[in-house]
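// run 5 | inverse folding | seed 20
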């Protein structure tokens, strides 16, 4: 037997399967989707088996060395998907495969097999008994190397639960085991033992008492008994020795949210609008139709409830569902809603989890232990085998596009998987991307509209404040008079305020007032950001840090000043103006720690603070009944970025933020401060008029030839030498111009707004096209031609349908 293997070597010329001979003893074991190690050149490399076949065109084949996984880590569907991803995003097939797996599977791993059921092992697999007679567990590597003939029965035993596989994840492996204690005797015996405890065994008596009162036969984690029930380790040990208690090592799936069964919720009775939207989705689920729905519903219209009830149906049909939410809105509130409805049937994957936790969640999916995967972008690769639904919430979010290889968009992957599985895809948003809304208007997607909030509360009134006028009127503070008086008013009424600012750090930049010099990163050509905590200037692209210079490096004057306002500065200002207000600041800096995000939100939710001040991370998903005022401090901070989506992003953000007010019984209102109060992105958001914004923006996109009227491909070239980079970019541009049809526009080469990153000069070419079948093959040729490796040489990267243009 021959296996086709994609070998883990990051170089274009080897991006094809290589044939390897499968040694006799592995022949009944190896299956497509498994990882193997193979000899490659003079080294051993990891590879993915993608297919098996009887014969090879080549005569001299090397043998597969070892099998890494006891079961295939990639399903047949994912193997195909990886090839499709490689083709359409111009990445290596192995990179696509690796992107589908949790990070720990790329890192060092040490897997062991151990006996789960000794009795059954003796009965069903006598041949394996000697292997495990001396050791409880054996490293998978040793088994594969020394006992390949045993692999087949071992795999069988694993599938029957007689043996289990453990993946040791560096030092995290320990955290997975907990010691539990349970009563080892009847309740009567416990009562008797407690009665006979002398005064010197008071602690033991307490412990016995606990097990008498909680007489369920349940196992209690020892750490929990000590921490929450004030029992001592010594007394538990003593009772174990007396045979009263039994201690166990229990393998645990990490439960990072610690949500227990008690919080279970059931389906809510739906409004007419919700019913009308859910019905066609259910129809597609039941009839295995791969339709794409765009659920356009104002914030608070109850889209999530629709997802939950659709998923309920999917589970009833014995299938599985994937729910994608942006990382930033993967808040505990959101997770609670899914865990509350589906309990243990949900796996949650997000970047806050440790590698081990992520691997556990992935394993639950792969082993069919859960029915629903909720996660950020990469959860779209959840290895379910009977997909019944994929939901993408906040589908307009740019974080669904991966900025590294493979540069995929989760929406495209979801739709592709939907077609493969015959399952619907639901895209939800209050502010759909122009691309999706345009497709819905052309009936490529099915539009579902929810115009009302579920409780029929009106959208909050929005007032735009012209900050230029404030300035002219002599108000130089960052708060307009109106906003400030309203904040004060809320403080008096004991209601809550959310203030939104799209920046981080104390000041955006440091400038010399005498000569206008702005301190920039020496590697990246962008202004450094001032961080007050350590009085440092920091580059947000490469991490470069320096002290704030005492004097101007250009003119030597000592008038270096901080400009712009970040969350820290607003916080300081609030503390100065309203010392009695309790302020919570939420930005990347205050939420860096694990659980930091959750902690701050919990405080605010419990009304332990009056004002929540934050960056875009507070724009989404938050739902606090006592928030009656939302203020946007600088609506235009995104409007002037060099990006054709700047208006769209501004509109989306303002709409999202406004949706945070008055969602419950108390009426809310929104104040937007702006230096460009007449811009349609600002006025349409204030009027909550998506339709009008769409019309306006489509005209502009049409006029300038941008998506959704054209597709874009962005070619990035970088080199440490400016001339080499410029040269190559010029050549790429002319190759493109000479080989594509005349309807295609090739722009550039241009120097992007950030001209240099990490000491490499950057050039870009942009291709605008409608239908151009020869483009992808040509781009492949170009990358192959220019792809060199090494630090000092040219690097080329291609981004199909880019979302970031800088
Ligand atoms: P969206 O995702 O559209 O912004 P959500 O699904 O978050 O809206 O719903 C907003 C709030 O309304 C949530 O607190 C949710 O529990 C509640 N809700 C949604 N639908 C219903 C319903 N049919 N009955 C009662 N409450 C509902
Ligand atoms: Zn100066
Ligand atoms: Zn930098």
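// decoded
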């Amino acid at each position: 037997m021959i296996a086709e293997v994609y070998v883990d070597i990051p170089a274009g010329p080897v991006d094809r399967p290589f044939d390897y001979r499968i040694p006799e003893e592995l022949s009944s074991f190896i299956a497509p989707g498994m990882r193997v190690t193979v000899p490659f050149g003079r080294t051993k490399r990891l590879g993915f088996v993608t297919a098996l076949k009887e014969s090879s065109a080549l005569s001299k084949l090397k043998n597969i060395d070892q099998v890494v996984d006891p079961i295939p880590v990639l399903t047949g569907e994912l193997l195909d998907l990886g090839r499709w991803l490689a083709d359409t995003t111009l990445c290596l097939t192995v990179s696509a495969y690796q992107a589908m797996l949790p990070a720990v599977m790329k890192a060092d791993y040490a897997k062991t097999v151990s006996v789960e059921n000794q009795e059954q092992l003796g009965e069903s697999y006598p041949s394996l008994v000697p292997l495990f007679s001396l050791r409880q567990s054996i490293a998978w590597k040793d088994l594969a190397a020394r006992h390949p003939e045993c692999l087949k029965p071992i795999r069988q035993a694993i599938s029957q639960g007689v043996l289990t596989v453990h993946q040791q994840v560096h030092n995290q492996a320990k955290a997975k085991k907990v010691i539990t204690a349970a009563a080892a005797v009847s309740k009567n015996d416990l009562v008797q033992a407690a009665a006979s405890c002398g005064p010197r065994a008071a602690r033991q008596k307490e412990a016995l008492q606990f097990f008498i009162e909680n007489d369920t036969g349940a196992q209690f984690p020892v750490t929990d008994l000590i921490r929450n029930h004030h029992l001592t380790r010594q007394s538990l040990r003593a009772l174990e020795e007396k045979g009263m208690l039994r201690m166990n090592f229990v393998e645990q799936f990490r439960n990072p949210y610690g949500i227990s069964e008690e919080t279970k919720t059931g389906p809510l009775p739906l409004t007419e609008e919700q019913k009308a939207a859910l019905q066609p989705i259910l129809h597609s689920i039941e009839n295995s139709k791969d339709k794409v729905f765009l659920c356009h519903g104002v914030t608070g219209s109850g889209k999530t409830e629709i997802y939950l009830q659709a998923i309920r149906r999917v589970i009833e049909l014995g299938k599985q569902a994937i729910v994608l939410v942006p990382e930033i809105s993967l808040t505990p509130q959101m997770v609670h809603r899914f865990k509350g409805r589906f309990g243990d049937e949900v796996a949650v994957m997000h970047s806050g989890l440790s590698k081990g936790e992520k691997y556990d969640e992935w394993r639950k999916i792969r082993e069919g232990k859960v029915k629903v995967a909720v996660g950020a972008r990469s959860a779209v690769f959840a290895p379910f085998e009977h997909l019944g639904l994929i939901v993408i919430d906040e589908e307009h979010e740019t974080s669904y596009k991966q900025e590294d290889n493979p540069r995929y968009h989760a929406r495209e992957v979801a739709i592709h998987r939907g077609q493969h599985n015959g399952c619907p895809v639901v895209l939800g948003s209050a502010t759909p991307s122009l691309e999706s809304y345009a497709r819905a208007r052309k009936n490529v997607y099915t539009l579902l509209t929810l115009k009302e909030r579920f409780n029929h509360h009106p959208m909050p009134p929005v007032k735009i404040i012209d900050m230029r006028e404030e300035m002219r009127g002599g108000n130089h503070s960052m708060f307009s008079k109106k906003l400030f008086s309203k904040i004060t008013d809320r403080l008096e009424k004991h209601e809550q305020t959310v203030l939104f600012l799209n920046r981080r750090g104390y000041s955006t930049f440091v400038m010399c007032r005498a000569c206008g010099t702005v301190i920039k990163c020496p590697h990246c050509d962008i202004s450094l950001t001032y961080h007050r905590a350590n009085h440092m200037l920091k580059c947000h692209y490469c991490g470069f840090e320096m002290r704030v210079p005492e004097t101007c490096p250009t003119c030597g004057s000592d008038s270096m000043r901080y400009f712009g306002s970040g969350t820290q500065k607003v916080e300081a200002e609030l503390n100065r103006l309203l010392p009695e207000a309790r302020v919570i600041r939420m930005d990347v800096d205050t939420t860096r720690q694990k659980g930091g995000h959750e902690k701050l939100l919990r405080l605010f939710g419990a009304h332990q603070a009056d004002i929540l001040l934050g960056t875009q991370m507070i724009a989404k998903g938050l739902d606090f009944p006592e928030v009656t005022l939302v203020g946007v401090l600088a609506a235009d901070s995104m409007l002037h970025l060099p990006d054709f989506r700047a208006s769209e992003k501004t509109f989306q953000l303002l709409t999202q933020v406004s949706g945070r007010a008055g969602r419950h019984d108390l009426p809310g209102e929104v104040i937007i401060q702006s230096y460009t109060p007449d811009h349609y992105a600002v006025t349409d958001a204030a009027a909550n008029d998506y339709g009008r914004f769409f019309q306006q923006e489509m005209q502009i996109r049409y006029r300038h030839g941008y998506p959704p009227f054209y597709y874009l491909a962005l070619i990035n070239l970088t080199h440490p030498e400016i001339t080499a980079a410029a040269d190559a970019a010029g050549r790429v541009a002319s190759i493109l111009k000479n080989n594509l049809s005349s309807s295609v526009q090739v722009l550039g080469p241009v120097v992007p707004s950030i001209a240099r990153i990490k000491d490499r000069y950057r050039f870009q070419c942009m291709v605008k096209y409608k239908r151009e079948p020869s483009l992808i093959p040509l781009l492949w040729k170009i990358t192959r031609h220019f792809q060199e490796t090494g630090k000092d040489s040219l690097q080329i990267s291609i981004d199909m349908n880019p979302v970031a243009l800088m």
